């Protein structure tokens, strides 16, 4: 029960208003800091993973240079495109969906990712040539600037395919990213900005392609081993 | 567009959180500062009290309410109970008459005219210093009245409100209200500390009879006479206090349908009465009530609707996206669901988590203030998860009806 003089309780005490405002501001500021912290942690995870991959690639390249043809077996059995590279795409697409993520940092991560993919592609082609392998891979070009409605669906189709067939390599590239090797890759394959675009066996396919379409274009898929579990590989989820 | 929406959402969350922090800071200042809330003591002099039980077709519940009133620990000669049968068509009158062998009970019958007419009818027929009301669906703790009566030693106090609890919750909807009432206990106590209670709830709010006569008795108040009276007392400069340990149990709606009907009436009455007393909003003359409590109540009304609108907009859009995605790709949505990504750590969501956590703190304080228990009710998580989705239902209906001026009925 209040024993204070009448009306006193109702009188506004400005200090209370100010203290409450201060606390609220501090808590909201902390929330902003925490969310940035988590985004930084995610970005750092991706950077670390990419560094690992670049070491992987470098070591396989070195191994390839060192060893002669008789070691083809070892190389073909090892997965050049490590599963880590696949999962990076998912983490990148999560970061892209977040507000307040450092755009420059994100773009730099994406450029690095594209370079790693191209390096992996080249290495794989070199290995295949030398060891007479017949690699099954798809190049996928997308845009997430709002000018490609089917890109999200196409990305998920490819994610699903690479989950079902862990040996299938899907290289996905943001068409709009300014990385010189990527521009060269686009020029070599003559890819126009009519996305989504898929390059399968040196042929360019524009527009959305379903799982059945891709199976028809790429009958070799049937010869690949199916994943025993749907979680065997995390696919490249590109948007 | 999306950016503007995020901005508005953050702004509203900031205001909601600010209001919760403000209440908590005021509460703590009151608990630990100079403005110590003295424990209620027995009044030195027991003032004469008239308790009105307005009834309309309450033959099943009126007896229980009367028994709880007769059990009150209060001097017999200082207590009278006036049952006002407001034109019931059932046996309410006859049921109430059975209790007249106790000299404290008087029973009257009048033509139906609404709750405020029954209260004024009783006000005209008593010389008691204090007058209160107990709805026929509520019961009081035996020490409630002596606690409340001691609050009137301050001559500027026109009303003392109790701590209201849900009586024997059974259905899910009642359990949700059980938690909500604990939050209300805290809010009412905090508002009292700020001199800003603007609702004197039907169940067992007690008034200084002379104050009520001075300001002209009860009015219809858009079917929420308890809010209209609270605002009118505040407008006239009277003080309204609260004793959370003066315990009252009330029957609450069992189903969503009856709850919505009750709350549409409350929300409609809120909008209409606040409009009638709009001169108080933002007016420093009315202190905390004008500067923060009423504005915050209005903002939370709008925010409730805005958040719900935004949520359902995104829900529908995401459902449509998922469906079209499934139709295009044939991939079931749950295949690409990753629980690690589900914990969203964006700024917006962290502030939502903080607001929810603060609400839990306030519910716990309400529980502590009214029961002495240190933990919130077990249904608290359900309340937090579900209530914000059902509140907008009545806010929306009430807003439409208030704009169209349709009026609302008691039942």
What does this structure look like?
The complex is a heterodimer of chains A (239) and B (411). By secondary structure, chain A is an alpha+beta fold. Helices cover 56% and strands 8% of the residues of chain A. Chain A has two domains: 13-133, Methane Monooxygenase Hydroxylase, Chain G, domain 1 (Up-down Bundle); 136-239, Glutaredoxin (3-Layer(aba) Sandwich). Chain A contains seven helices and four strands; from the N terminus they run ααααβαβαββα. The longest helix of chain A has 53 residues, at 14-66. The termini of chain A are far apart. Chain B has 411 residues and is α/β, with parallel strands linked by helices. Chain B has an eight-stranded mixed β-sheet with strand order 3-2-1-4-7-6-8-5, sandwiched between helices. The longest helix of chain B is centred in the last third of the chain and has 43 residues, at 287-329. Chain B contains 13 helices and eight strands. Chain B has one domain (1-31, 137-332, 344-411). The model of chain B is unreliable at 34-39 (pLDDT under 50). The radius of gyration of chain B is 23 Å and the shape is globular. Chains A and B meet through helix 1 and helix 5 of A and helix 1, strand 8, helix 10 and helix 12 of B.
| Arithmetic mean pLDDT of chain A | 76
Put simply, the count of helices of chain B is 13
Give the amount of beta strand of chain A, in percent: 5-15%
- Rg of chain B (CA only): 23 Å
The CATH class designation of the largest domain in chain A is Mainly Alpha
Major sheet: arrangement of strands of chain A: 2-1-3-4
Strands of chain B, count: 8
CA-based shape of chain A:
elongated
The secondary-structure class of chain B comes to alpha/beta
Computed Rg of chain A = 25 Å
- Spatial sequence of strands, sheet with the most strands of chain B: 3-2-1-4-7-6-8-5
Number of domains of chain A: 2
Coarse shape of chain B: globular
| Count of helical regions of chain A | 7
Write the H/E string of chain A, N to C: HHHHEHEHEEH
- Multimeric organization: heterodimer
**Mind describing the biggest β-sheet of chain B?**
8 strands, mixed
State the separation between the terminal residues of chain A, measured CA to CA: 62 Å
């Amino acid at each position: 029960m209040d024993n204070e003089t009448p009306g006193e309780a109702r009188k506004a005490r400005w200090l209370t208003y100010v203290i409450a405002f201060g606390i609220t501001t501090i808590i909201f500021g902390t929330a902003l800091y925490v969310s940035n912290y988590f985004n930084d942690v995610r970005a750092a995870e991706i950077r670390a993973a990419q560094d690992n991959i670049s070491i992987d690639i470098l070591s396989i390249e070195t191994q390839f240079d060192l060893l002669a043809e008789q070691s083809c077996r070892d190389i073909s059995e090892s997965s050049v495109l490590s599963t880590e590279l696949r999962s990076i795409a998912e983490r990148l697409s999560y970061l892209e969906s977040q507000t307040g993520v450092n755009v420059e940092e994100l773009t730099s991560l994406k450029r690095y990712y594209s370079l790693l993919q191209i390096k992996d592609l080249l290495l794989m082609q070199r290995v295949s040539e030398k060891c007479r392998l017949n690699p099954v891979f798809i190049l996928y070009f997308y845009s997430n600037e709002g000018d490609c409605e089917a890109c999200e669906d196409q990305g998920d189709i490819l994610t699903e395919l690479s989950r079902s067939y862990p040996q299938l390599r899907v290289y996905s590239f943001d068409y709009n990213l300014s990385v010189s090797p990527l521009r060269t890759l686009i020029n070599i394959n003559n890819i126009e900005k009519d996305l989504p675009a898929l390059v399968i066996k040196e042929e360019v396919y524009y527009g959305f392609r379903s799982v059945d379409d891709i199976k028809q274009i790429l009958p070799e898929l049937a010869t690949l081993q199916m994943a025993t579990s749907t979680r065997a590989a995390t696919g490249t989820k590109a948007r | 567009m999306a950016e503007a929406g995020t901005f508005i959402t953050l702004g509203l969350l900031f205001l909601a959180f600010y209001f919760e922090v403000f209440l908590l800071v005021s509460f703590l200042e009151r608990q630990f500062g100079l403005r110590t809330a003295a424990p209620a003591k027995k009044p030195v002099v027991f003032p004469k009290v008239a308790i009105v039980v307005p009834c309309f077709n309450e033959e099943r519940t009126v007896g229980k309410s009367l028994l709880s009133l007769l059990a009150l620990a209060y001097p017999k000669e200082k207590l009278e109970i006036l049952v006002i049968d407001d034109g019931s068509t059932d046996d309410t009158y006859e049921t109430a008459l059975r209790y007249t062998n106790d000299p404290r009970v008087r029973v009257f019958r009048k033509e139906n005219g609404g709750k405020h007419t029954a209260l004024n009818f009783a006000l005209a027929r008593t010389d008691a210093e204090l007058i209160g009301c107990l709805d026929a669906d509520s019961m009081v703790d035996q020490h409630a009245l002596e606690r409340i009566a001691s609050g009137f030693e301050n001559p500027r106090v026109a009303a003392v409100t109790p701590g209201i609890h849900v009586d024997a919750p059974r259905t899910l909807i009642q359990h949700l209200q059980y938690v909500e009432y604990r939050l209300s206990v805290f809010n009412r106590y905090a508002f009292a500390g700020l001199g800003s209670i603007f609702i004197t709830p039907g169940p067992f709010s007690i008034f200084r009879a002379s104050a009520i006569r001075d300001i002209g008795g009860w009015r219809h108040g858009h079917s929420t006479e308890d809010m209209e009276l609270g605002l009118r007392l505040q407008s006239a400069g009277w003080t309204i206090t609260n004793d959370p340990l003066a315990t009252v149990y009330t029957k609450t709606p069992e189903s969503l349908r009856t709850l919505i009907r009750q709350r549409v009436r409350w929300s409609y009455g809120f909008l209409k009465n606040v409009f009638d007393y709009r001169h108080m909003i933002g007016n420093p003359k009315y202190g905390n009530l004008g500067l923060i409590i009423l504005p915050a109540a209005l903002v939370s009304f709008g925010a409730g609707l805005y958040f719900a609108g935004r949520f359902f907009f995104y829900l529908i859009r995401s459902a449509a996206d998922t469906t079209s995605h499934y139709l295009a790709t044939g991939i079931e949505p749950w295949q690409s669901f990753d629980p690690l990504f589900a914990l969203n750590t964006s700024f917006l969501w962290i502030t939502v988590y903080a607001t929810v956590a603060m609400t839990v703190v306030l519910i716990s304080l309400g529980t502590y203030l009214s029961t002495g228990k240190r933990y919130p009710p077990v249904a608290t998580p359900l309340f937090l998860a579900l209530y914000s989705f059902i509140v907008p239902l009545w806010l929306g209906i009430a807003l439409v009806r208030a704009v169209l001026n349709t009026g609302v009925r008691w039942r």
